[in-house]
Write the structure tokens for this entry.
Amino acid sequence: MNDENARILSHAEGLLRAIEPVELGDGPVYLLDAASAAWFDSSTCIGATHPSFDLLLRPILESQGRWRGRGFACLLDVEWFAANAKPWGWRLKAVCRTTIHELAHRVCFPLSMLDSDVTEAFTVAAMSTDVAVDDVVGHGGTWLRALCHLAWRANATPWPYRLQCKADDLGDHGAYRLSQFRDYADTLRREIVRHHETPLREVLATEPPAAFVELLANESDDSGRVLRRGYPPNSGL
């Protein structure tokens, strides 16, 4: 990885720590080029995470002298960003937005999964063309709520990590067959402002605003997976 991309990933890590310091704590954050993991198919997504990614990537991290114990690990398709977001500033924003998307998954994973050392199930899923990415990481109601909070926090973060960011920047709502994410953010506005410094796991453990639940419930039946992965929070992926 060249120095420019290394600086971008370092900046992205700083942003993640700024917007959700309790979740990440003092533990390591591993942002890696997807090309370094031969078993991972980056053709399906430009960023990905999973509770066991740190363990799956440990041999690579150890070979790079980076392993510092368990922590948040995320794979990024660095080649895609280099080809599709060529100006440095654009690439920085694109990478930061993708890592925020993945951090929203992280805060939805049950703590029991983060403490688990079981990796075999995901390894099989990751290498199978029969398993959709959505079945592995999920884009349900809990994730969507976390995403809206993190987008607001990215905008409110002091320099140098402030990122002009809207919920719609952090995922393809069309691919998930959902209404535009900004509509969900509008239903959460008061909650987001009131809890902008509250650890997200604490926020997600509470009942969401009725307007948010109603909007999610009114999505078309074609949103199947999303509607099945709603509430209570952390009920599954």
